[in-house]
Design brief:
Layout: H1 23-36, H2 48-61, E1 68-69, E2 72-73, H3 80-92, H4 97-123, H5 125-136, H6 139-145, H7 151-168, H8 174-188, H9 194-207, H10 212-216, H11 221-240, H12 251-264, H13 275-283, H14 291-300, H15 307-325, H16 338-349, H17 355-384, H18 389-401, E3 410-414, H19 419-423, E4 431-433, H20 436-445, E5 449-454, H21 458-465, E6 468-472, E7 491-496
Parallel strand pairs: 3-4, 3-5
Antiparallel strand pairs: 1-2, 5-7, 6-7
Helix pairs in contact: 1-4, 1-5, 2-3, 3-4, 4-5, 4-6, 4-7, 4-16, 5-16, 7-8, 7-9, 8-9, 8-11, 9-15, 15-16, 20-21
């Protein structure tokens, strides 16, 4: 006899972790611990710097609808991710690594909850809980949940849309369709149109199962679509009016360029087509070793495998195909696939008569969680205190203030990462220059200019600066901890005498 979720019964497992009453609270409490422990310990990483610089400029200027990355109009990503980070900064009393990362951490928590809810409705409460635990104990998932960018927001939007659809799939109507359309619009304002597209890819196998799409093809789709389109377009319409007559680009035009043109005619991010198959193993660790068993069962039982068991595999496959066919590819674009892969793995682990699988999964999850607690709670704070960009920024300011007040200095990033533009907190918007002539002109106009660049460019920049103090980034790697970082991508700063 099926339970109240409509799923077939499964053998009960011991312990509170998969208990339908206590399990969800334990899962969410553990997720909060892993996601929120020492969130500001690590320096901003790669593209986190872009969000930090843009949010700081919005807060400094009071213009929240026209994003700028240094002197450049920057509408590569929609506005909502910036607004969430700025809102977190207001709540926490200022912009910081923790404030910048808080929306992604909350998105990770939401994704775990949605994975549980999807699994509960599809397979039963214990399998739903297990899927939530599998997702939570993927180190890649936790790592990206602790970064200030839009990728985890994108994953949460996809998981949220599919969770809502799963809850309401047998109750189509105005409310069901309107809320789903609104979730699509919010997801599209996080990273781009990829969120609703991937969510639809995940829903398609279920919609075409037993002709379910016919029950959803009704008049309520029209007002729901209008609501979703309106909610998506609203920020673009608000930003269309120029701010002080200086903002020239159309956010909607750039959204088309980033979401549609890039898919068919990529202008960057051109990785090989096999990149997602290559990284699937890495992104699903430690559960990647179970994927052959999941796929073997699907092939062995392809005629008898029920629609619920087949659905997460088909959803993952469709999403992978869609991403692979795109001309623009990055390995982290596949993050939204993780909840559905974990649902398939959880269903395989809970196969009747396979209690050993559950015990092995429990020990693996415990070891993975313990390792992440040690890494994020102890190792990262210890190592980051001995090197990195924050420490370098403090050294730069100390050297500059020994000559003149910090407010009299300008900051120029010479074709390098934007993080130092955030950490140095200049009195005016930092600049990013790309050529020697531009740099020479900037130094001529304002001799008190701190110049930051990659170490590989230092030899050709030093003659332009003249007599100066040089500050170099220190390593956070255990075998070189606190020593000058010796890679070509390490940061070097010149402070003129």
């Amino acid at each position: 006899m099926a339970d109240d979720t409509g799923a077939p019964p499964r053998p009960r497992s011991p312990g509170a972790l998969l208990d339908p009453l206590k399990g969800p609270r334990i899962l969410l409490g553990s997720a909060a611990l892993l996601l929120f422990i020492m969130p500001g310990a690590a320096d901003l990483w790669t593209h986190e710097g872009r969000w930090a610089v843009i949010c700081r400029e919005m807060m400094r200027s009071g213009d929240y609808i026209h994003p700028y990355l240094f002197d450049e109009e920057y509408y590569d990503k929609p506005l909502l991710s910036y607004w969430l980070m700025i809102g977190a900064a207001r709540l926490l009393g200022g912009l910081s690594e923790t404030a910048l990362r808080l929306p992604a951490m909350l998105a990770g928590l939401l994704a775990v909850w949605c994975t549980y809810r999807i699994g509960r409705r599809r397979f039963g409460p214990e399998t739903g809980l297990l899927a939530g635990w599998l997702l939570l104990t993927c180190p890649i998932f936790v790592y990206w949940s602790r970064l200030a960018c839009s990728d985890m927001l994108n994953l949460a939007a996809v998981a949220g849309a599919v969770a809502w659809y799963t809850e309401r799939r047998d109750r189509p109507g105005v409310v069901s369709h309107a809320v789903l359309a609104f979730i699509f619009a919010v997801g599209a304002q996080m990273k781009g149109l990829v969120a609703p597209v991937l969510a639809l890819m995940a829903m398609l196998p279920d919609l075409f199962s037993d002709g379910r799409w016919r029950r959803h093809l009704r008049w309520s789709l029209l007002p729901a679509a209008a609501l979703g389109v309106g909610a998506y377009l609203l920020p673009f319409l608000a930003s269309k009016a120029p701010s002080g007559g200086t903002y020239e680009s159309s956010g909607l035009a750039l959204a088309f360029r980033e979401n549609v043109l890039r898919y068919f005619k990529p202008f960057d991010h051109e990785q090989p087509r096999y990149v997602y198959a290559q990284y699937l193993f890495v992104y699903t660790l430690p559960w990647a070793f179970l994927l052959p068993g999941v796929l073997a069962r699907a092939l062995r039982q392809r005629r008898s495998l029920g629609p619920d068991a087949a659905w997460p595999l088909l959803a993952s496959l469709l999403m992978l195909v869609f991403l692979t066919l795109s001309g623009s590819r990055r390995n982290y674009y596949m993050l939204p696939i993780l909840p559905f892969v974990m649902l398939a793995v959880a269903d395989w682990i809970r196969e009747p008569g396979r209690e050993l699988r559950l015990r092995v999964a429990g020990w693996t999850a415990a070891l993975s969680a313990a390792g992440m607690l040690l890494f994020f709670g102890v190792v990262t704070p210890l190592f980051e205190s001995r090197g990195g960009l924050r420490l370098m920024a403090a050294e730069i300011r100390q050297a500059a203030e020994s000559r003149a007040p910090w407010g009299s200095w300008r900051v120029v990033l010479f074709d390098t990462r934007p993080q130092m533009g955030y950490y140095l907190e200049p009195g005016e918007r930092p600049r990013r220059l790309l050529t020697n002539d531009e740099l020479a002109q900037a130094l001529k106009e304002h001799p008190r200019t701190v110049v930051v660049m990659y170490s590989e460019k230092a030899a050709r920049v030093e003659p332009l600066v003249g007599p100066c103090t040089i500050v170099r980034e220190k390593s956070t790697l255990p075998w070189q901890l606190g020593q000058t970082k010796n890679t070509s991508q390490a940061q070097t700063a010149f402070i003129p005498e």
